[in-house]
Amino acid sequence: MIAPTTLIIFAALLAVLGPVLLRRSTWLERAPKIGIAAWQALSISLLSTVLLAGSAVALPAIPWTTDLAALMRACAMLLREQYSTPGGALVSAVGAIAVIAVLSRVAYCLITGLALAARNRKTQLHTLALIARPHDEYDALVVEHSSAAAYCLPGRNSQVVVTSATLTALDHRQLVAVLAHERAHLQGRHHLIVAVADALQRAFPGIRAFREARSTLGRLVELLADDAAAKRSDRLTVATALVRLAEHGITPVAALGAGGESSLGRVRRLVAPASPLGTGRVMLSTLGVGALLALPLFFAVAPASAAAGNMPPCQMDSTLWVL
Fold it and tell me: Which domain holds residue 172?
């Protein structure tokens, strides 16, 4: 039971300390792409740790060896021993049920969330087909509305939408910057990043790490799109456009918009940008993300690897040949 215990302890540490460490990291806003990877790695690592812990309970620890025949014999013997007693069978059943329940819950929340978002987008696209007019110069749909807003609808028939008030409130450069922001969302498939984080939050609402990941990832994808827009236009132009959109920001459900509640912090970041991360810090951050993803598998495999050196040669019981 070394592997399950180690994995459960590691999962608890990830759930409690992981969000705190990432929240205190000053480099998230300086490198949104790495920040997104870090929060995704935390979520994936936490989920995989729980799944591996359940699998370790359901299956006995099999010592790893390069001898395939010895590995098969060890598997057969340990599985037979595990399920030969009511207690062993019960423990294994609990672990298997836990793995199936977690996977089913995540899959259900992800599928239903994506399906709901797809239905909302389909409804909005149908409505836009009736009321919107295409703008040839900016390759966007224009909707008559008194509030300035710009947003994108991702998916197979992706569209960028602006209101008529936006065309009045923004000059040409500002409008180009806003459209670049929205197209960065579409090209980066940011809606999928948010959808997965949202599914984990809904699947396990009591886990703070998943709640913070959802909130932070929603902000980081906006920062990433801001940086993409700033490559097309200067940062001050993007900031000015955000300020004007934030005054009357409206973003439909299932859409990603340039305005929003985080606009003020994003404007400050654009006006007074921090220095970018150096090559050394980028490499260290990348290694840290990789280690975060690899540690659950290491804790699951390490006990079996250690046991391989201490395990005596297996003798095949003749009864194992009877199927």
Answer: 2-310
